[in-house]
Write a sequence for this structure.
């Protein structure tokens, strides 16, 4: 496994593999790797000859007052996790490598980026789409791997790839959870023991929604109402949004049917957590 910081150097190395017909898989991450990331690495390992993991805490996707400077950066642990996942190359650029002086081009996926998390984190998905487009150009992977946990992100990346004719297959893998149901997230380390317990309300509310749906409730407003009531029962929880939307265009839907996404963002103390489930 090699660690490469310079974008040009990585592109040059990968060019050789590409010319020999090797399939390249890319797993973009911000580090602080956990079993969720590992599942993406392992899938990439299964489907490609060469696996590239990028580790880059991308400043352009953080808003003012968000946790960019305190985001966890456990380099040694991340490197050993990549080794465990069968990574061939870790792309570990600096902010200057990715955004040199004079940088002024951004990718905006309109519409999809301004709802749900985009409404609460203006500019977030512009930063995400821009850095992912850059990673796609640097690595030129055959396939790139994303987690269902960040459902809106995956939908936006798919849209960008289709709209800009980027020749990358986007693979979206299931959310990995702990034993109690909490979706793994690099931000879970911010939670105290009591908050971690309260955070179970996210997956709890999604379970409740699925249960209501299965028992015949199709009215989104009713389901959202029950979910909100459950979440508000936790002292440390503040709802950013609870929504039921069309999986293709993220527009709210009134009556649940196929292809809908039940999604939520909740602050537990100062930590903002997201989770979702798909009704297929
Ligand atoms: P991040 O480092 O948080 O930017 O995440 C990098 C990738 O890992 C994204 O595609 C995430 O959706 C994915 N990911 C994060 N948490 C999980 C999880 N619990 N299960 C599956 N994928 C995840």
């Amino acid at each position: 496994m090699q660690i490469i910081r310079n974008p040009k150097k990585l592109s040059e190395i990968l060019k050789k593999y590409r010319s020999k017909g090797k399939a390249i898989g890319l797993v973009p991450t911000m580090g602080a790797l956990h079993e969720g990331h590992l599942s993406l690495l392992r899938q990439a390992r299964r489907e490609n000859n060469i696996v590239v993991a990028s580790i880059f805490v991308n400043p352009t996707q953080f808003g003012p007052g968000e946790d960019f400077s305190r985001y966890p950066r456990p380099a040694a642990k991340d490197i050993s996790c990549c080794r465990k996942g069968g990574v061939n190359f870790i792309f570990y650029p600096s902010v200057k490598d990715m955004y040199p002086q004079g940088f002024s081009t951004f990718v905006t996926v309109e519409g999809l980026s301004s709802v749900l998390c985009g409404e609460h984190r203006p500019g977030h998905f512009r930063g995400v789409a821009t850095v992912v487009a850059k990673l796609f150009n640097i690595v030129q992977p055959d396939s790139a791997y994303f987690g269902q946990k960040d459902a809106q992100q995956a939908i936006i990346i798919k849209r960008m790839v289709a709209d800009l004719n980027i020749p990358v297959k986007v693979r979206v893998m299931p959310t990995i959870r702990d034993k109690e149901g909490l979706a793994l997230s690099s931000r879970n380390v911010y939670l105290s023991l009591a908050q971690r317990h309260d955070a179970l309300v996210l997956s709890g509310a999604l379970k409740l929604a699925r249960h209501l749906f299965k028992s015949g409730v199709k009215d989104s407003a009713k389901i959202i109402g029950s979910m909100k009531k459950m979440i508000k029962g936790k002292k440390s929880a503040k709802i950013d949004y609870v929504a039921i939307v069309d999986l293709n265009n993220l527009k709210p839907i009134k009556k649940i049917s196929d292809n809908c996404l039940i999604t939520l963002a909740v602050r537990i103390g100062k930590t903002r957590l997201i989770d979702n489930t798909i009704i297929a």
About this structure: Residues 186-279 form a domain with the Pantoate--beta-alanine Ligase; Chain: A,domain 2 fold (CATH 3.30.1300.10). The first strand starts at residue 2 and ends at 4. The mean pLDDT is 98. The chain has two domains: 2-173, 186-279.
